[in-house]
Design a protein that fits this description.
- By secondary structure, this protein is α/β, with parallel strands linked by helices.
- The chain has a domain at 9-122 and 199-276: 3-Layer(aba) Sandwich (Arginase, Chain A).
- Helices cover 32% and strands 18% of the residues.
- The strands form two sheets. An eight-stranded parallel beta sheet has the order 4-1-5-10-9-6-7-8, with helices on both faces. A two-stranded antiparallel sheet has the order 2-3.
- Helix 1 packs across helix 9, helix 4 packs parallel to helix 5 (148-155) and helix 8 (229-239) runs parallel beside helix 9 (260-276).
- Manganese (II) ion (MN) binds at residues 129-131, 207, 209, 251.
- Residues 129-131, 207, 209, 251 line the site of manganese (II) ion.
Length: 277
C-alpha cells in the first residue's frame, strides 16, 4: 500500500511557489479506440523517472540543478465527458501559466492536448504523432483523440511530424486547407523547414506513437515506420531556439513487464526540459 507516498517526477519535489516546471498528470483514456490503458501512463512515466540518471551526458549538466520541478497530484477526469476533462486541463494549465510556470502534461489520451492549448493565445503547435488526428468528429464527439489536431488547426498554426496514418476525410481536408507543407510523413522530415514554419512561441505535443514501435511498443495504436530516438531529439533540439511555453507527452500505455515505453517518455520529458528551459 502506498500510504503517504506522493508520486513526483525524479522522486523529489520543489515547492510549487519556486518551481519553473509543473508536471500535470492526466489519467484519462475514455475515448481511446483500440488499446485501452493510457490512463495508467502518467503514473508509469513518473515512476520510471525516478530511475533516470540526473546528469545528462549531452548537456554536460544535471538538468534538475537549473530547473525546479513540481509534480501535481493526478488531475480530476470525467470519463463520461471528454469536454469536462478538457476543461479541467484548460483551467489547470491557465492557472499555471498565470503563475509563470511551464506546464508539462502527461497523458492519458491525446484529446487532453486541446485543453492545454486553450490556455494559450498566439502559439504555433509542433505535433509528433503517427496519426494526423484531423477528423472533424469521431464516435460522436468533436473532442475525441482522433480530432485533436483539427481543433488545434481551427485556432493555431501547426506542424505535424511522423505522420503515417489518416483517413480519406483527413487527406481531403489537408488538400482543401492547403496545409500539405506543414505535414511530414514518417521519417521524411526537414528540420530547417519545421523550424521555419513554426512561430516564435510554441507548444509541443508528443504522441508517443510518433516513435517507431521498435523504440516505443507501449501505445494504444502502434504504427510501423516511425521516428527513432535520435530523430525526435534532433527535432526538439532544433526547436529549442524558440520560446517553448509548454509540452505534453501522451498515449503512453504501460505493457508490463516491459518498462521501455514509460522510461523513454520520462527520459524524453527530462531532455526536453533541458533543451527548452
Ligand atoms: Mn497518435
Amino acid at each position: 500500500m502506498d500510504f503517504g507516498v506522493k508520486r513526483t517526477f525524479l522522486g523529489f519535489q520543489s515547492a510549487l511557489k519556486e518551481a519553473n516546471v509543473v508536471i500535470v498528470p492526466v489519467p484519462y483514456d475514455a475515448t481511446a479506440s483500440y488499446g485501452v490503458g493510457t490512463r495508467f501512463g502518467p503514473n508509469a512515466i513518473i515512476d520510471a523517472s525516478t530511475q533516470l540518471e540526473l546528469y545528462d551526458i549531452e548537456l554536460k549538466k544535471s538538468i534538475c540543478d537549473e530547473i525546479l520541478i513540481h509534480t501535481l497530484d493526478e488531475l480530476a477526469v470525467n470519463k463520461d465527458s471528454p469536454k469536462k476533462t478538457i476543461d479541467n486541463v484548460e483551467e489547470a494549465v491557465r492557472e499555471l501559466v498565470s503563475m509563470g510556470k511551464k506546464p508539462v502534461i502527461f497523458g492519458g489520451e491525446h484529446s487532453i492536448t486541446g485543453g492545454a492549448l486553450a490556455a494559450f493565445d498566439n502559439i504555433s503547435v509542433l505535433q509528433i504523432d503517427a496519426h494526423a488526428d484531423l477528423r472533424d468528429s469521431y464516435e460522436g464527439t468533436k473532442y475525441n483523440h482522433a480530432c485533436v489536431m483539427r481543433r488545434v488547426r481551427e485556432k493555431h498554426d501547426a506542424v505535424q511530424v511522423g505522420i503515417r496514418s489518416m483517413s480519406e476525410e483527413e487527406a481531403d481536408y489537408i488538400e482543401k486547407e492547403k496545409i500539405q507543407d506543414s505535414i511530414f510523413y514518417g521519417r521524411n522530415y526537414d528540420i530547417e523547414k519545421i523550424v521555419s514554419l513554426l512561430g516564435d512561441k510554441i507548444y509541443v505535443t508528443v504522441d508517443i506513437d510518433g516513435f517507431d514501435p521498435s523504440v516505443v511498443p507501449g501505445t494504444g495504436t502502434p504504427e510501423p515506420g516511425g521516428l527513432l530516438w535520435e530523430d525526435v531529439l534532433g527535432i526538439m533540439k532544433a526547436v529549442s531556439k524558440k520560446n517553448v511555453v509548454g509540452f505534453d507527452i501522451v498515449e503512453v500505455l504501460p505493457t508490463p513487464p516491459l518498462r521501455t515505453s514509460e522510461f523513454i517518455a520520462a527520459k524524453l520529458a527530462y531532455k526536453m526540459m533541458g533543451y527548452f528551459w
